[in-house]
Predict the structure of Integrase catalytic domain-containing protein.
Amino acid sequence: MAGEFSDEFIKMKSIHLDGGGEFYADFELACKEYWIKLFCLPTRSLKLNEVVERLNRTYREELCERYEGEANLGEVWRELK
């Protein structure tokens, strides 16, 4: 998914992760395939992650709660353009 997103929407050079390992192995392989660098934040480093957490909160409050269309990334992207 990271590669597809990078190809179709925004060219990503790197992704910062919070260290949650539930899907990391597959995600890491996909990112390597598309030359996307991964940076993993140290455990319990809330100060380093606060901007991302705030962005996620804003995204959920401002977009997800108001968007009534398909829960499809391509559809959402077209709506936002």
In short: The CA atoms of residues 8 and 74 lie 9 Å apart. The longest helix spans residues 46-64.
